[in-house]
Write a structure and sequence with these properties.
7-stranded mixed β-sheet; single chain
């Protein structure tokens, strides 16, 4: 079969031939990969910034955002059958019995750091014509979401973040407290940093949950991303028109920040503007950039005197994948054009190298491996 692999040590990236995998155990599921989304992580791996091949291999098949179709299942698989559409998760548990998180299928909270990640860390990814996986790492997808299902994995970042925001803000017994069983509408102003796929999906999730949602990014107002934000009821704020310290006045206060840029200086500048009882969520992983100064005293003072909470979130577990499928279905009911507008173009496998280096304008680029 064909796959796309990177040799992290040299940066060599190309379409390669690989052995087509088969079932080796009763709980194996063989999948035909349909779509794979390309993100900044894939580009950073191709640039040699990180990425670890499986033990004994010098190359890593990349790709961690995907939709696949079940081809064959082992005798011990009960809930999946040939023809089902699925979305595979990324992170797999560490081997240590003392890691409570991994022992409870919450490997996204792994204590040891010895987890593996498909297409990123010590396991081959999904940018191959066929893969084999296990059912506990596969979330069923309804046929109606086949064309947009590749958005599920980046949407799980927002799902996990919202779950934690709900948990944190239950401390507030009034209008802005977040209750996952109802719409948390009154008084909640959310600011999303970045208008890439993770930011826009996060903005949709916040808007769909009842937040007054604002997206802050570099693109000029009135452009395609601005129009997309407005199409699902959000407000787009361009950094060309709004300085960071003006955002609280422009928005009427900042209750939640969902950071999705990896731009560390911007992130910390905005942290200084977080409102009383606010929650700040970091999702971006900055590259190796020059250090910069932050106003540590102001940030610390605000955290204490304004009862603020700051946390980071990475990857996601099965619950987030399942809730992301449900939420994407609701997105498609309410804002189908906006959801489809996130996917800029589908590329053939032979053009992945170009896609990694110079995709051109757009939001989410997808590699189409099969119809």
């Amino acid at each position: 079969m064909r796959a796309f692999a990177v040799v992290p040590e040299t940066g060599k990236a190309e379409v390669v031939g690989a052995d087509e995998p088969g079932l080796t155990g009763p709980t194996d599921v063989k999948l035909r990969v349909l779509d794979v989304g390309i993100c900044g992580t894939d580009r950073e791996i191709a640039a040699g910034e990180y990425g670890t091949p499986p033990e004994g291999d010098d190359r890593l098949i990349i790709g961690h955002e995907s939709v696949a179709q079940v081809v064959e299942v082992g005798a011990g698989v009960e809930r999946l059958s040939a023809g089902d559409l699925v979305v595979p998760s990324v992170r797999r548990p560490c081997p240590h019995a003392y890691c409570t998180a991994c022992q409870n299928d919450q490997q996204d909270f792994c204590y040891t750091g010895d987890f593996t990640e498909r297409g990123i860390k010590e396991r081959h990814g999904f940018l191959a014509e066929y893969i084999v996986d296990e059912p506990q790492y596969l979330t069923k997808l309804t046929p109606e979401l086949r064309d947009v299902g590749v958005l599920i994995e980046p949407l799980t970042i927002a799902e996990k973040a919202l779950t934690q925001i709900w948990g944190v803000q239950q401390r507030l017994p009034w209008a802005c407290a977040i209750d996952p069983t109802s719409r948390p509408s009154q008084g909640c102003n959310a600011l999303v940093l970045g208008a890439g796929p993770v930011g826009l999906l996060g903005a949709m999730a916040l808007a769909e949950s009842g937040f007054r949602t604002h997206v802050y990014s570099r693109e000029p107002a009135g452009g395609p991303r601005s129009q997309l934000v407005e199409s699902f009821g959000g407000r787009y704020l361009s950094s060309a028109d709004h300085a960071v310290d003006d955002l609280p006045t422009t928005m009427g206060g900042i209750d939640v920040v969902y950071e999705a840029t990896g731009a560390s200086k911007l992130a910390f500048d905005v942290l200084e503007e977080l409102g009383t009882n606010g929650v700040y969520v970091f999702t971006g992983v900055p590259g190796r950039k020059h250090p910069f100064e932050v106003n540590g005293a102001k940030i610390m003072r605000n955290l204490v005197l304004k009862n603020q909470v700051v946390f980071g979130t990475v990857n996601a577990g099965s619950e987030a994948f399942e809730s992301a499928v449900d939420r994407l279905g609701r997105f498609m009911t309410r804002w189908p054009d906006a959801v489809r507008g996130l996917i800029t173009r589908r590329w053939p496998l032979e053009e992945v190298d170009r896609l990694l280096n110079d995709p051109g304008p757009g939001i989410k680029h997808v590699v189409a491996l099969a119809e």
